[in-house]
Design brief:
By secondary structure, the protein is of the alpha/beta class. Helices cover about 40% and strands about 20% of the residues. The chain contains seven helices and nine strands. The strands form two sheets. It has a seven-stranded mixed sheet with strand order 1-9-6-2-5-3-4, with helices on both faces. A two-stranded antiparallel ribbon has the order 7-8. The N and C termini lie far apart (about 50 Å).
């Protein structure tokens, strides 16, 4: 197993895997009929922005990027993150290697370097793409993305990209990857602005706003392709009814 892992994580294999993944995603994008909601989404925002996504829904997020937009994405430093970085390169997205904290603030537990790199990217006019949820805790927004918005002065824009034909994985993040020859939806949420002088209660309120808006755009995107989000949170009303 050790030898196999070394082979899989070798530079040559990672480059090949990344190239194949990027090629496949380009094929999916070309062979699906996409709609964007709202249709004038990009007229409502001023670049650069922080594009927020849920983990597991990240495979197709770059479909929403316009050709003229420069973009950078936060990618884990793990071995598995290497081929993701290669794939992003082939898709025209620069990878920022780093990891957020398992807790609430990306500045902790080794995330400071990644935070500085993302701040530089935004300052240079690059859109930054990152998952909003806490590592290994699906669909719960962490404080890191809110901190980035506060320090950079750039708004957070929740984004969902889904296809009618796809593979849904039974993973902790309920990951999905699109299949060719279907319909697709790209939904951009309302920008969330974080004041530089925001206090802790305000930051917590805005964190919850990002979480709710991400849930909303994913629900809407899946509805547009006639599906239901497999990673959606349980309806609390239904949960109470089942316990009665």
């Amino acid at each position: 197993m050790g030898l196999m892992k070394r082979i899989i994580r070798s530079r040559a294999v990672q480059e090949t895997l990344g190239f194949i993944v990027a090629g496949y995603l380009k094929f999916v994008q070309r062979t699906n009929r996409f709609v964007m909601e709202p249709a004038d989404a990009y007229d409502r925002i001023e670049m650069p922005v922080i594009a927020a996504m849920w983990h597991g829904q990240h495979f197709m997020i770059h479909f929403a990027k316009r050709p003229q937009d420069r973009a950078a994405s936060l990618v884990s430093r793990s071995g598995d993150g290497e081929f993701n970085a290669v794939a992003l390169r082939h898709l025209g997205v620069r990878a920022i290697r780093g990891s957020g904290a398992r807790g609430r603030d990306i500045r902790k537990k080794g995330g400071a370097q990644a935070m500085r790199a993302m701040l530089r990217a935004l300052s240079d006019g690059e859109m930054v793409v990152m998952t909003a949820d806490i590592p290994k805790i699906s669909r719960i927004c962490g404080q890191g993305i809110v901190t980035l918005a506060q320090l950079s002065g750039r708004p957070i824009v929740p984004v969902a990209v889904v296809t009618s034909r796809r593979i849904d994985f039974d993973s902790w993040d309920k990951a999905s990857i699109g299949l060719p020859f279907g319909r697709g939806a790209m939904v951009l949420g309302e920008p969330v602005h974080v004041p530089r002088d925001a206090d802790e209660p305000t930051l917590e309120s805005l964190r919850k706003t990002v979480e709710r808006e991400l849930d909303r755009v994913h629900e809407r995107a899946y509805a547009l392709v006639g599906s239901r989000d497999p990673g959606a949170k349980p309806d609390p009303v239904l949960m109470e009814g089942s316990q009665a």
